[in-house]
Structure formats: C-alpha cells, structure tokens
C-alpha cells in the first residue's frame, strides 16, 4: 500500500521525492539570498490552500502586506483572498521576543491549525542565530511539536561564505526530515540555479543536481525529473528469477522478502542490484 504524501507544489519536485513530502514532517529548504526560498515556501502553502488545507505562514521579516505583495508579484493574486477568508494565517514575529520556552510561536500555530495544516517558517535563521550545540534538544522539541500540528517547510539562510558548520545551520539540518539545498551558482541561464536533495528520511529521493527556474505565474520549476521518472520502473521479481534461471524456493526467505521490496520500490538501477545479489548467492 502506497504511503500518503503531501504534494510540495513545486513543479517537477514531487517526482524527485517519491511523490512528495511524508505527512507530519519538518522539511528544510537551505539556500543563500536570491535562490527562491520564500517563493518555495509560498508555493508549498498555496498548493495546500488550493486543496482546501489550512495554511500558516510565519516570518521574522515580513508582515501580511509584504507576503501578499510578493505573492501578487508572482501572479498569485488569490493569496489575499485566502488571508481574508481565514484559510491562510500570516504573522510576523520578532525573534528577540520569541523563545522555545515561552511557547509564543507554538501557541499561535496551534490556535490557527486545522485538520490538515501546512506551516511555513521563512526564515528560521533569525530565531536560531544565537544557537549553540547545547540547545539541540530545544530545536528537537520544537520540531516535534510542529509535526503534531501538520507538515512544515522551514527555510534556512546559507551563509554567503558557504560555511554551514555553524550550529544554527547544522542542528536544523540534522533534525529535519527532508533537506533541499538551493544554490545560485551563476553559470548562465540554463544552470543559474540548481537544487539538490540532501536527505529524505524514510523515503526514496533522487540523487544528483537539478536545474530550476523561477517563472511568473507558476513559481519554481525543476527540470530533469522526466529522466528520473523514466529510469524508475516497478520490476517483476518472478520474471527476473526466471530469466536468471533461479528457482524461487532456493532463495532464503528473508532475502526474498528484501528483494521483493526492492523490486517494488521503483528505484533506478534496482534490476542490476538484484542480479548482482543473486550472482553472489548462486
């Protein structure tokens, strides 16, 4: 039975994440200035709104008008209507007035959440910029509370010098369920911006670097997913065994179960892996 997924709203990304985010997860989007992190967060929220899901957008830099203006500049004029109807809650917090201990942020999120809620925090960096490794448990607790409410996208600022070893970066990356790294590498139009999925806990994800563009009306569009999709096929393990001349009953039961799961996973190159394992056994 296929696990339910939460569509990201990013064109071409769900195909790289095995159909989307896992429900009730905290998903990190890391990138420097100009990579489209805010647009990513808005697309994620907008997709949920279009499906009738409640949205919560939290910023430490932008108020309601700023968020609506950015969305309108992308051609998403209906964002304002969602705010007016109460389907989208937008709030600007001041990092110096919020702590993990006093629950201000979580109280607001819990009060606005619905049955199926999408949460975007753009950006998480001002809240955790003074973070030390001793505060890892605080972030872990905060993330666990977000998972209880819904599915979250949290953006993180990548330092301009590229150093991501600071606790304010490494701790959220370690504790997040999915990490997507956006880069603006400046190699020209085709590869000006690229995306890489660093991890997707408990799920398959595509490997490699994928170019993306930001286009008015549709937002972020990831390229290259068609090739990945074409490489993924659900295999018939019985057929593979017949072609290899191996009788099913001769295979250890536990190994057979693992091979069956691999065959059903639609992982690129799975057939070659299965044949390689069988050659070692027989």
Account of the protein in words:
With about 280 residues, the protein is α/β, with parallel strands linked by helices. The longest helix is centred in the first third of the chain and has 14 residues, at about 35-50. The model has no long low-confidence stretch (mean pLDDT about 85). The protein has two domains: about 15-230, 3-Layer(aba) Sandwich (Rossmann fold), CATH 3.40.50.300; about 235-280. The protein has helices spanning about 35-50, 65-75, 80-85, 105-110, 125-130, 135-150, 165-175, 225-230, 235-245, 255-265, 270-280; strands at about 25-30, 55-60, 90, 115-120, 150-155, 180-185, 195-200, 210-215, 220.
Q: Gyration radius, to the nearest Å?
A: 21 Å
Q: So how many helices?
A: 11
Q: Write the element-wise H/E pattern from the N-terminal end onward.
A: EHEHHEHEHHEHEEEEHHHH
CATH architecture of the largest domain: 3-Layer(aba) Sandwich
Strand content: 15-25%
- What is the number of independent domains? 2
Mean pLDDT over all positions:
87
Topology:
Blueprint: E1 26-31, H1 37-50, E2 54-59, H2 64-73, H3 79-85, E3 88-92, H4 104-112, E4 117-121, H5 125-128, H6 136-149, E5 151-157, H7 167-175, E6 178-184, E7 193-200, E8 209-215, E9 219-222, H8 225-231, H9 237-244, H10 253-264, H11 270-281
Parallel strand pairs: 1-5, 1-6, 2-3, 2-4, 4-5
Antiparallel strand pairs: 6-7, 7-8, 8-9
